[in-house]
Amino acid sequence: MKTPARASGDSFTTRTPTLLLALAATFAAGLSGCASKHAAHGSDKHAEKSATAVPARTKETAPRQNIPDLTRKVEFARDRVFPSLVNITVITVSYWGGTETKGGSTGSGTIISPDGLIVTNHHVVEDGKTFKVTLADKREATATLVGDDPMTDLAVLRINMKDLGENTTLPVASFGNSDELQVGDYVIAMGAPYGLSRSVTLGVVSNTERVFTGMSGDDIADQEFDFDVSSDIFTRWIQHDALILPGNSGGPLVNLQGEIIGVNTRGGSGLGFANPTSLVKYVVDNLIAHGEVPRSTIGANFKSVKRAGFQEGVLINSVNENGPADKAGLKAGDVMLAINGQSTSARFPEEIPLVLRKIAEKPVGTSLDISYKRDGQVGTAKVTTEKLLKERGDETALRLFGLSVSQITDKMARNRNFDSTQGALVIGVKGGSPAEIAEPSLTWGDVIKSMDGVAINSLEDLVNQYKVMAAKDPLPEFVTIEFDRNGKNQLTLIKPRPEKRDDPPRELPKGWIGIATQPILKDLAKQMGLGDQVGFRVTRIYPGTLASNSGLQVGDVITKVNGEAMAPRGMQDAGMMQRRVRQLGTSGEATLTVLRNKQPVDVKVPLERTRITAEEALRDSNRDFEMSVRELTFFDRDDNRWDESVNGVMVVSVERVGWAGLAGMVEGDVIQRINNEVVTDLTSYRKAMEKISKEQPERVAFFVQRGNRTQFKFAEPEWKPTTDKAEEKK
Amino acid sequence: MTRCTSLLALPLVALALVSGTVATPAFADEKADAIRKLSTDKSPALVTIKFILKGDEGDMMGGGDREEEATGVMIDGSGLILVSSLSMGTNPFAAMMGMGAGPQPQEIKILVGDDTQGVDAKIIARDSELNLSWVRVDKAPEKPFTAIDLNTYADAGVGDEIFVVSRMGKFFDRAVNVNTLRIAGQTTKPRKALLGGESLFSSMGLPVYNADGKLVGISSIILPNKDEMEGMQGGMSGMRDMMAGAIIPAKDIAEATKNALENAAKAPAEEPKEEPAAEVKPAEAPAKPE
Hints:
The complex is a heterodimer. Chain A has 16 helices and 44 strands. In chain A, strands 23, 24, 25, 26, 27, 28 and 29 form a seven-stranded antiparallel β-sheet that branches. In chain A, strands 38, 39, 40, 41, 42, 43 and 44 form a seven-stranded antiparallel β-sheet that branches. Chain A has a six-stranded antiparallel beta barrel with strand order 3-4-5-8-7-6. Chain A starts with a strand and ends with a helix. By secondary structure, chain A is α+β, with helices and mostly antiparallel strands. In chain A, about 20% of the residues lie in helices and about 35% in strands. The longest helix of chain A has 14 residues, at about 275-290. Chain A is elongated. In chain A, a hairpin with a 4-residue loop joins β23 and β24 (about 405). By secondary structure, chain B is of the alpha+beta class. Helix content of chain B is about 20%, strand content about 30%. Chain B has helices at about 1-20, 30-40, 90-95, 235-245, 250-265, and strands spanning about 45-55, 65-75, 80-85, 105-110, 120-125, 130-135, 160-165, 175-180, 185, 195, 205-210, 215-220, 245-250. In chain B, β11 (about 205-210) and β12 form a beta hairpin. Chains A and B meet through α12, β37 and β44 of A and β1, β4, β5 and α5 of B.
């Protein structure tokens, strides 16, 4: 879940759990009768035990006198974990709406090994393409993803130690035992709320085994935070009230001994939920060893038995067709009593994660003897576990079609009642794209079955076939797509085409006099001593225009244009004079009768053509830097009071996480120089950017005018070979 | 007595209805003839303009891209079309309120007659004051398209009957539709225009004829520019007037078209440069910025 939290100039989202879902779930869990262990507040015996382990204080925490005991303990914990606390900045690429979409997010994490392993949340690194880590000492380094686990929302990153120099050893925080945690214990949340680094909040544990169910239900599987992903089914959360906000995600929850006892993952409205380290350690170990968490499943869904009227066992809610449980003869309604002779029971929803983990943590392919009760009779089934497969499929975008597509996983097929995982699922269509304007158009939920007669059994098949098509020059006029929509087999034709954008059309040139005016209405005219002579008062004569040499003066009141009276009756007539002038043509001259010192004077003013406006200014889009610029107009200069020395091109749009955006370029900046190339107009801009593209420098310095100040903006491009040459060529 | 009369009238009504379904045309009066003739003669010049309306990301007036259709009129057999800028998706309020250019029509195609694929075209000129755009096909046709003659026009005054030939959308198979109305008024401010007395919004950019089939003008909207907006604080009544549309006299349209063609014929180099580029010497960039 991404919660927008854009501070001024911040182009990122900080990631944190949803507020309402968490609250609803919490409320529901409360109603369902979960039992909390209550303990006295101020359970600080561990802190006292470990007091001798306080490390040397940092400069910021010089010894102070007469501070409360609790403060000392918080400081102790802080000093043990702070050095290993990191901010994580992620550039993401997601594929929805028929195109790749760049984005950014920030979160928190903790270094857990001297060689740079970091534990954080899956939702912090989700869709991440590049990762940057800021250490507690403010040094920055890039990082790579070791592995992530959507089902527990945990992930591990590894810092690229080369970025930090030879022989760097990183400070490490250690895990504590979350099983020892009791309701009422003090806990400290650390992280970067709203991206504000190294922050600490204090709270108490309010529940050690929170699970999320639906508002009125008691099935934890009902609560999917992420569509298609069985999130949180293995987790019994530590609920606490140490304030966590967007940006805290992935940060540690710490006990007063300075040990990590949880990873803050969800929160809202004063309640925080942390993954307990008893689970975190298992997941992290597997991610480091395998890049994933291999899990067993028997293909069944479980429910606690309290509402079913049983005192023991686990109710089988459903079994997946042809799954291990199904093959072994288990059925929905059976009450599982024991696994391999060990009694297994879940009277309350809080106990379901333990049952699921008991099965999931067995090696894949384990044979389980499951005893169960059906219609009062006890039976036994031998079930061989299968690997719990990834639930969300890989995704990509086919730009020439304007289509986002996904692999179809078992779970996705089941959720949609598909009879197989064959094909590629349409997950987004760009407005106005070939896929949308096709007749019939493709739409969300369609399953692509073939392309130009070639069967598409997987996402990979579709991508391969697309690449073959995209490499053709010219592109084929039509591509035939066979797709399935709600069980109906259909055909359509797509006309592939690359994205292109023409310059906006120019306005028809018309007559213009380079002045600004205001209407002088009846009452104002009287006050000015003009009697009944209304007209248009010259308020500005634009420098550099033909009018500036015509003899017109600011303060003149124009009463006639070529003998035709200009008599405004209200502010709605403010444009009357210029409308009249526009009809006079773009050459020749107009005779303006003006009142100057209350005396009529005829002034001949040469006509010129209307100046180009921002709306019709020519543009250029640079795909490498993800920035569009337009030519500077006369009115840009006049509005900003820029003199003639201000030339260049104006930024009209910039992708905030593109190279230019990350350099700090914003809309309205006027680019005047790029490295050593002076930019005066679109032509020189294009020339400079072509040179940059050819030379591919490590750093590009943009010298820009922002308002009335100049600034340098430094972009650090990551030049890489373009993989999509076929599209570039178009 | 009244009741008897009513009952007696029923068979007559039924007879009239029956004969109405059999006899075509039903009414052989002058107006009906004019409508039928206009429908036949003028509708072939109507064309469908298909385009993708593209908004810039982050543009306040932008939004997602989408396919749109507009009806325009062929004004030259070589493939010159006149169309309402508003129908082309251009948001006149965006520029008026200083909110950028707003979404722009791209990938324009002209569908003539029964064509469903269309031929590529571009907007060659736009007149925001008239809210009209001139669109030209990229490749001239082998055989000229049917077009209306902008140079054969007639004046019209208050009370004169006028006709607007338009087409329904594709759902109704682009059926020709002729509306009749009378010139209900005229204005000289903010520019000279005829008023239709009822909304012309659905026929923006389309020709308005007299009973003889002579062009009277083009239906359009006239909007205030940025300076004039201050005088538009009277609430929705002013807005309603504006959106009801007006008829721009044919003479003005002919002149604007001449201007558009002359301007389009000019090479871009002939466009005046905004200002001579001054020699610029911005500060040197640090050689090795930290």
